[in-house]
Model the fold of this input.
Amino acid sequence: MESAKRAADLAHVIGDERLLAGAEITHSDALWNLGEDDNALRVLEELIPRAEAFGDLNNLGRALANAASYYARRGDFIKDRVYFERMLAVAERRGDRGQIVLGLIALSGNAYLTGSWEKSSAYLDRADAILSTLSTTRVSGWPSGARAWLELRKGNLDRATTLAEETLAFAQSVEDVDWQRLAARVLAERDVLLGEPRQALSRLEPFMATGKSEYDPGFMRTLARVQLELGDLAAAHVASERAIAQATAMKDQPELVECLIVHGAVLSMQARFDEAQQIFDYALSGARRMPFPLGEALVLQETGIMMLARGDREAAHARFEVSHALFDGLGARLESERVLRFMEQDAPV
Done:
């Protein structure tokens, strides 16, 4: 931290604007890692107009991308989108195809989280078209991996499976364990939807021995969901708590919402209804604040299931109705159909 600040001070004394911009980006990174989020963003917000005025497109693009990422992790998707759109425009001015791809992928993620799934897919198509002209890198597997999640959420399980298997094969070819773990998660989530939790667990087990998986909140969330489906509530409780801790440490608000939803479902199955309600309320507040419509729909669905378990059918159906409308609007076919089944019965299926 101190070295980063000294570098920025030195660049300021010398009067080298480009050197100063690079040093301030490093300083901002250090502040963010120390948990000083507001100060990290302040440094970037002050730097961006100066870099723009000076014509320093390289550092301008870096600052815009970093600021956008910070806002995304805070759940401020409006600023996230605006800054990544500006970053993409800078990359296009520079003709930097690699940065253009990163911008398109980031905007795809923003569109997915905010519920514009067709727009998300369109950004991935543009990224794929550029990647086909470039040499293979780790980023090459990103569009197929992102699209696998999108198709899974839509309920297109065959397409999601094909894309996940393609991503897994690519990740194995470049020996990228992180991408292998992500692809395995898609396949495990699909198995759960098909009522095959043991098959899902077998996909996750190879990664549980590596050590890194416990620091991946998404992986721990999927593992907790699988263990919940298997009826291993104690293990699911531990995994979901770990997922929440990691999502919190990473300041990843959308991931935190999804981790909270799984943890609430575990508490509900343990008949710890008051605790589960508190967790669901917190997740719902976070999802609506961003906004994150898929997260909102999922938490309302799980809250409705808990209400049924408590015998409060009227309260359950009120939540199911809103959840169904959200799923339907997103195009999440399987989840929409699942909620309808709950609404037609007195108890979970």
Notes: DSSP finds 18 helices and no strands in the chain. Residues 131 and 140 are 6 Å apart (CA to CA). The radius of gyration is 22 Å.
